[in-house]
């Protein structure tokens, strides 16, 4: 989702364990790192994957969608039509491997945690799944609102996970919104921008975490700043 930054890490091998289709053209990939017993990361960080394709070393970065679990990590990504790397990953079979480095990145929930609004579009939901799986069980006194925007209902990635979290944790609210709703959809519609401002209301003491395409991220940041939210309370990660 962004270019690798931070201290240099050792190149490792990531072996595909399984994949699950989340929506048309979107998969949840589970990898393991065979040479280590435990692979640690902070939810919200990302991995850098590299493969040789047509004689070129191609590297891409993807946010981790899981919590630390032995030597495993999960990624959520869509197959980009005409892309060079995602079709390669979508062609992998269990047992196949790619080179990887990481974890990288500072897009993580703060400690101590404030009440927060989490904003995602598309596969930008991946780091929030990781964050919420880890932090909701321990953050009973903080109000967390997830606003997730996609085009179609079938593209609400990890929907069952978030709906289950909303039932389990009274301090968590899941607010999906669709830009192309079909008949029968009775919840929010339109882009995430308007719903962020609705969730913010008159409060200026909350943090807002944003992840998705740069156009959306930049627009939400601008609206929050215009509304008087301190820029230090706006934490974001954007990608092309």
Care to give the gist of this entry?
This protein has helices spanning 86-90, 126-135, 159-168, 192-200, 214-226; strands at residues 12-23, 26-32, 46-53, 56-63, 72-78, 97-104, 116-121, 144-150, 172-178, 188-189, 207-213, 234-239.
Please characterize this protein's 3D structure.
This protein has 240 residues and is an alpha/beta fold. The chain has two domains: 12-104, Translation factors (Elongation Factor Tu (Ef-tu), domain 3, Beta Barrel); 116-239, Nucleotide-binding domain of ferredoxin-NADP reductase (FNR) module (Rossmann fold), CATH 3.40.50. It is 20% helix and 35% strand. It contains five helices and twelve strands. The protein has a six-stranded antiparallel beta sheet. α4 packs parallel to α5. 38% of the residues are buried. Residues 1-7 have low confidence and may be disordered.
Helix content: 10-25%
> What about the largest sheet?
6 strands, antiparallel
CATH topology heading of the largest domain: Rossmann fold
CATH superfamily of the largest domain: Nucleotide-binding domain of ferredoxin-NADP reductase (FNR) module
Number of domains: 2
**Secondary structural class:** alpha/beta
Termini separation comes to 8 Å
Keywords:
Rossmann fold, 2 domains, 6-stranded parallel β-sheet, 5 helices, disordered N terminus
Give the SSE layout.
Elements: E1 12-23, E2 26-32, E3 46-53, E4 56-63, E5 72-78, H1 86-90, E6 97-104, E7 116-121, H2 126-135, E8 144-150, H3 159-168, E9 172-178, E10 188-189, H4 192-200, E11 207-213, H5 214-226, E12 234-239
Parallel strand pairs: 7-8, 7-11, 8-9, 9-10, 11-12
Antiparallel strand pairs: 1-2, 1-6, 2-5, 3-4, 3-6
Helix pairs in contact: 4-5
